[in-house]
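ARCHIVE CARD
Drawer: 12
Card no.: 0347
Subject: one protein chain, sequence and derived structure
Cross-reference: see card 0346
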Amino acid sequence: MVQLAQGHDSAWQAAQAQLVAAERRADQAQAGLLPSVGLSAGLSHNSTDVSRPPVDYSGQTRSAAISATQPLYRPANRIGYEQGQRGADLAQAQLDAAAQDLLIRVSQAYFDVLGAEDALSFVQAQKAAVSEQKAAAQRNFEVGTATITDTHEAQARYDLVTAQEIAAQNDLRVKRLALDQLVGRQGSKPDHLAQPLALPGVQPDDVETWVQTALQQQPGVRQAQLALEVARLETRKAEAGHKPTVDLQASYAVQHNPNGTVTVPNINGRTHSTTVGVALNLPLFAGFAVQNRVKETLALEDKAEADLETARRNVAQATRSAFFGVQSGAGQVKALEAAEMSSQSALDANLLGYKVGVRVNIDVLNAQSQLYQTKRDLALARYNLLMGQLRLRQAAGTLSIDDVQNLNALLAH
């Protein structure tokens, strides 16, 4: 399912394209450290008429030149290259976040379908049980061992379960459409959890370990950290506005005059010139633009630091909430498993009591409703526990395709 979603999901593909663009942007920044070479050529026609002394000249000038510049000292370009690398790292962190989000969305849609299928099957099983109870109440009324009230109560419960069945069918249809849209394939059929089921626990069983992992690996924190590094580099780049730049320059030019020149006409001349030198550029005053730019970047650096602290706090809180949610979910599953056994025993006792006349029909109907509601709650709690474990890993920044594949061992293929 995940592989299908990766080939279809637009958010995942957008994050991939963003990474490619960031890498190419980093390559562009590297150009500021490499030499630049240019080639120029020209052809001109000259006509000169001088009255005294009499000169009548008409000729062509052909020229060609190649020039190259190698930056020797350009601190702003070096910092721009470092920023480009940080930008690529930032895009990678965004792609990691998109990948983890895709795993969560696919898993959630998968378990939503399973939960909807379980809910429908439990409602249909309850409907069949209520139908049998309604038929029994009708037979008892006909032989005079029960009142018409039992029949009406069974009919009312049957109608209620029928309405629940319709709602469950519609919910299953919607959940299947959501999964099909996510993976880009019609008629997806998820495998159910194998029975009996032993749900895995969370390791390590220490919330602070998960929090420390999240503060180091969570993509949101990494993005905020990289944004701070980019802001600091931007301050250094702004400060470089005060510094000189040094370039190595070289050129070679050829000029050809087939008909000579105005001063030396009628002579086929060719001129070759070569220059090599170092150019120094020292900024002196730019109307306080550099100083104000530095103040701006320092303020943006403070903002990036505050954003990083906010990201760390939010991630720590989300990780703790996810961890305690998993613990609570595990306890809820155990409680519901015990409740399922108790509800089944209660239903068996009420059915026996109804047969011997010490229980009424409504007692049996209530016991049936409690049992199937407990079954639905238990199935949902199991799916929520598995999703909670995935969300905990997402909060810690460690969620990978291997975690999702490990769930395949719990499925009945």
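Annotation on reverse: The chain has a mean pLDDT of 90. The CA atoms of residues 331 and 385 lie 10 Å apart.
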